[in-house]
């Protein structure tokens, strides 16, 4: 009888890695968390398995299209995981996207935090 042990890689959990699930949190939770990680670490690594891959790509595209991040690396792979229900080994697609801080990041983030105050001040002038 052969026993197959599947374990996670022994590399330590990176401080700037976000493992995205498409069931646990809303999309903009991850977008805002990624912004915070970019602010703190100058880059963020987004990773996902299976059906959550589309969510990771969407997060990356939102950050890039808003001028907040630049794409540094995209890595795809297939990993073996144990299916809890059937107890057998299944293959899952995996993606990792590394985004770096854009040159405009700081000025865009400053503008985003000061803009609502400016518009609300104008509303009270009437």
Key features of this structure:
126 residues; alpha+beta; 4 strands; elongated
Distance between the termini: 81 Å
- Unreliable spans are 1-11, 117-126
Alpha carbon gyration radius: 19 Å
Largest sheet geometry? 4 strands, mixed
Please characterize this protein's 3D structure.
The chain is an alpha+beta fold. Helix content is 37%, strand content 29%. It is built from 3 helices and 4 strands. The protein has helices at residues 27-41, 53-65, 105-123; strands at residues 17-19, 43-49, 69-82, 89-101. A 4-stranded mixed β-sheet has the order 1-2-4-3. α1 links the parallel β1 (17-19) and β2. α1 crosses α2. The radius of gyration is 19 Å and the shape is elongated. The model is unreliable at 1-11 and 117-126 (pLDDT under 50). This is DNA/RNA-binding protein Alba-like domain-containing protein. GO terms for molecular function: RNA binding. One of its GO terms (cellular component) is nucleus. Residues 16-78 form the DNA/RNA-binding protein Alba-like domain.
Write the layout of secondary structure elements.
Elements: E1 17-19, H1 27-41, E2 43-49, H2 53-65, E3 69-82, E4 89-101, H3 105-123
Parallel strand pairs: 1-2
Antiparallel strand pairs: 2-4, 3-4
Concise overview:
The chain has 126 residues and is α+β, with helices and mostly antiparallel strands.
